[in-house]
Amino acid sequence: MKDEDRVERWIADLISTLDQAAELVARGEEAYRLDPALPLAFEALSNRVGELAKRLVTAAPERFASPLFRQAARNRDFVAHHYDRIDHAILWRTVRDSFPVLRSELVN
């Protein structure tokens, strides 16, 4: 598989993941607070988004130079390694506010 094919596959996967996150955000903040599965889903989505962002930055740093990609990768590292210190209100805002901005970076 060519590098460019791999990058395009990762972009498609990232867009799909960000769209899934948007669907969960659409359930609302109250659902997020009341359903214990939603914060766990947000953690998993943050892990996937960050891992894909890392891959894209590594494979094509000039194409993915926006600081948002590196921030997504750092967020992933925090969520994965410091899961016991996650502030779920911040996680909610990150997925609600930052993920759509990251998605717009991919389609521009």
Explain what you see.
With 108 residues, this protein is mostly helical. It is globular. The relative contact order is 0.17. Helix 1 crosses helix 5 (88-107), helix 3 packs across helix 4 (67-81) and helix 3 (37-59) packs across helix 5 (88-107). The chain contains five helices and no strands. The chain has helices at residues 3-25, 29-34, 37-59, 67-81, 88-107. The chain has one domain: Four Helix Bundle (Hemerythrin (Met), subunit A), CATH 1.20.120. Helices cover 81% and strands 0% of the residues.
Give the SSE map.
Layout: H1 3-25, H2 29-34, H3 37-59, H4 67-81, H5 88-107
Helix pairs in contact: 1-3, 1-5, 3-4, 3-5
Report the oligomer. single chain
Distance between the termini: 25 Å
Q: For the CA atoms, what is the radius of gyration?
A: 14 Å
Shape: globular
Structure described in brief:
It is built from 5 helices and no strands. It is mostly helical and 108 residues long. The protein has one domain (3-107): Up-down Bundle (Four Helix Bundle (Hemerythrin (Met), subunit A)), CATH 1.20.120.
